[in-house]
Amino acid sequence: MSESNETNVSLKWQDFRVAPEGAKIEQNLNNPNIRYENLSNTQKEWVKCAIEVVGLPTRNISFVRYEENTSENQNWLGSVNNADGSMRIYSRLGKTDISPEKRIGTMYHEGVHTITAFDDKNDDFYGSKEVREEVKHYMKSVADQAVITGIPLNEYHASLLAALGKKEEDGGITIGRFYRETEAILSEMRATDTESLSLVQERQQAVYEFMQLLHDPSVEGYEFTRLASGTDSSDLVGVEKTLAILHRVESKAELEERFDKIRKFAKENPSPFIVEPN
Predict the structure, then answer these.
(1) For residue 117, which of 36, 136, 147, 229 is within the disulfide window of CB 3.0 to 4.6 Å?
(2) pLDDT band at 21 (very low <50, low <70, confident <90, very high)
(3) How many angstroms separate the CA atoms of 65 and 90, rounded?
(4) Tell me: the pLDDT tens digits for 222-270?
């Protein structure tokens, strides 16, 4: 990619760099030598800063590569291949209909995929095997709740929900992929779109309670799973407990401080991937 395609972007490293005592992420959980491929200098700096602002462990990321979308992945914004440690950012991320929050949200989403609780090798990101298994069980419960209530987390989650049960050649997905995507979508939304997540929780709970009144067998013996705490609580609830572990913070206030930095970065640092329409 030629340097002439760069977009001027004001990177405020000093504003967003997290001090070691704030991040509390052990050095052995991070990779200081991530490679960046097919990126201009400005794009590389934006991606590096975005990864640091997101603040998730990076040990499983070997390289980040920019690629054009193809007919097979025309709507993808990013992807991860944990087999080779690759994180890919696609040209769709540069379309003007993608919001700044969605761009940084994509970095968060893909970061969660790299440290998924559904991989046995990721125990140390969660502190222990037992905690990772608890997180995995929680994420399955969130995914199952979307299926039971028919209320997905967002539009992308809705498309995945619709693909469940279909054959792969017809665009279907496995329940395993649905679980992993639920994990990443839920985490991304709590970091960048708390208001929408709260509305989803309210809708799911309303449907769940109505199903209970009807004695629907689908919810018999099923306990409603909270997604997050909302703004009226100082406690860590739902996915917030998992994200506090991954970010090595101990309170909701500390977690909100992290998320505030992520949102501020998104607003103040325009993406260098943006391509204006002709």
Answers:
(1) 136
(2) very low
(3) 9
(4) 999 999 996 667 899 999 999 999 999 999 999 999 999 999 999 998 8
Counting every residue written for the chain, the total comes to 278
Q: At which residue do the structure tokens 């309210």 appear?
A: 202
**pLDDT for 270:** 81
Which pair of tokens denotes residue 154? 């967002």
Write out pLDDT tens, residues 166-177.
988 888 999 999
The answer to whether 67 touches 89, Cβ cutoff 8 Å, is: yes
Of the candidates 223, 182, 183, 230, the residue with the CA atom closest to the CA atom of residue 205: 223
Strands in 86-90's sheet, in edge-to-edge order, are 35-37, 63-67, 86-90, 78-81
Number of Cβ within a 10 Å radius of residue 34:
17
Helix or strand or coil: residue 243?
A: helix
- SS3 call for 89: strand
Written as six digits, the tokens of 255 are: 């977690």
pLDDT in tens, 120-155: 999 999 999 999 999 999 999 999 999 999 999 999
Contact 51, 34 (CB under 8 A): yes
Closest CA to 46 of 277, 266, 276: 266
Question: Residue 255 and residue 248: Cα distance in Å, rounded?
Answer: 9
Give the 3-state secondary structure of residue 50: helix
The pLDDT of residue 16 is above 90: no
Classified as helix, coil or strand, 101 is helix
